[in-house]
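DM from R.C. (forwarded with permission)

"hey, sorry to bug you on a friday — could you get me a structure for this? deadline for the figure draft is monday and I only need the backbone to look sensible"
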Amino acid sequence: MTQFWGVDADPTAQGRIKGARPVAVLDIGSNSVRLVVYERHARALTPLYNEKASCALGRGIAKTGKLSAPSMAQAIDAIKRFALVAKMMRVGKIYLLATSAVRAASNRDEFVADVEKIMETPVRVLSGEEEAHYAALGVVAGIPGFAGIVGDLGGGSLEFSAIVGGTDTAGESFELGVIRLQDDSDGSPQKASEIVRKALSRSILAQTEPGGQFAAIGGTWRSLAKLHQTQTKYPLQMVQDYVVKARDMIAFCEEIVAEDLLKSYPGANLVSNSRRELVPFGAAVLAEILKTGRFSSVVFSALGVREGYLFGILDDRERAIDPLIQGAEELSVLRSRSPAHANDLIDFTTQYLEAVGRDETPEERRLRIVAALLADIGWRSHPDYRGAQSVDAVAYGSLTGVDHPSRSFLAQTMAVRYDGLKSKEANGLVSLGNPSLTARARLIGALFRVAYPMTAAMPGILSRIRFSLDGAALVLHLPSDLAFLAGDHLRNRLRQFSEVAGHSESRVEIG
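My reply, with the result:
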C-alpha cells in the first residue's frame, strides 16, 4: 500500500508561485522547537507552515548543565513530526539551527546526533555572537532602514546587536533568557529585574546615545506586545513593526512585574499556557533594557533568527530587493486578473502626477506602486464585499517591509478603489496614519477608479491615455479610436476624482 506522503503526484495548488521550491528552518530553542516552511527562498518570505512545540529544553540547565531527558524526548517527538511535514511539503532545503540551551548543554552531542539522524541534515549550533548576528539580520529583513539596538530574548539567553547602515556590529550574549531568569530568581520577576539590571550595566546599552530605538525579538516579547495592544485597544492586532514609546512600555512592564501575574490583563487568554508564566520575566528584561539604553521607543519584530539566517545567505542583489514590492508583485501574479495591468496602472498614475506637477517622496512613490500592484486582488470576492476583503488582505496580510501607518494607507486606498470615496471599510485604521496620509490614499484610490472602467483590468489601454491641465481644469485625453469610452460612467468617475484632487473642473477630450 502506498503511503499518502509518498504519492508521485505534485500536491501543490495553482495558488502557489510557479516553480517555487519550499525552504524550511527548524529552530531548536530553549523554550520551544519550531518548524517554519516558506514558499520559496526569496527576499520576501511567505510562510506555508508554522508550528511550534513547547519543550522547555532550557529548563534546569543552569543547575545541572544538561538537557533533561523528558525535554529531549518531547523535542525528539516533535522533530519526528516536523520531518514528516517537511517530506510531505517537498521542502527543497531545510536548515537546522540550535541556540542557547543546546549550546550550553554538556550532553548536547547525543541530542544533536538524534536530531541529525531524524532530519538527515546537519544541525548548526549557533554561538551567542552568531545568534545575535542572525537576529539583527531578521530585523533588517523585516524593517528595512532600521538603525539602533536589536535584542533577541529566548528561553536561555539574551543577545544584542547594534545596526548601523543595514549592518550589525557589537554582538553580545547574556544568560538572561526567560527560563534561565525564572530559575535563577526562584520564580520572582522582581528579583529577575535586579539580576538583569546588574548584568546590563556592562552591556553595549550603557554606551549608546540616548533617544534611539530598540528592536525587540522573541516569543515572550511578542506576547507582551499583544497584551499591550489589547490593553490600549490598538486597532491593528499585528506585532510586526508595532512601535511603542519607551516610557509607556516601561510603565506597562513594571506593572506586570509588580503584579507577577497576567490574569487581570485584557487579552491574557491570548497568551499560550506555556508562555504565560514567562511573560512577567520578559517584562522585567524589557523594562531594564529600555531604561539602561535610554531609548525613546521600542519596535517589535516578528522576524528574527530564522528569517535573518535565510536573509544572510541571499546574494547582494537579492538582499537589495524591496520586500514589500516583491511581496505585492507575488500577490498580483497570484490573485489579480492581469499583472501587466498593474504596470499600466503604475505608469498611468505617474503620468497624472507629472502632468499636474505633484511631487512625491520616494516612500510615497513606493507605496503608490504597491497599491497599484494590489489594486485588483479582490476581484474574486462577492461585489458587496470586495472592498472589505481587499482591506483585510493588505492590512492583515503577511507583507513585510511595511509599517503600520503604511498599512493604513494601503487599506484606505483599497477601500476607495472598490467602494468609493464614502467607503468606511478602513475607517478603523485611519488613526494609524495622519490626515496627509489619508488624503493621499483618497487621491490614489479615486484615480484607480478612473482607470478601471476604461480597461476591465486588462493591459494596453492606459498607456494610450494621458492627462493635462488647462488652467485649473483637468483634461483626460482619449485617442479617437477609444472615443466610445467617454460615457457617463467615466465622466462621473473623473469628476469625483477632480474634486478630491482639487481641480476646479474636468473634461474628456478626444483625439
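R.C.: lifesaver. Confidence is low (pLDDT under 50) at residues 1-8.
me: no worries. The CA atoms of residues 144 and 401 lie 6 Å apart.
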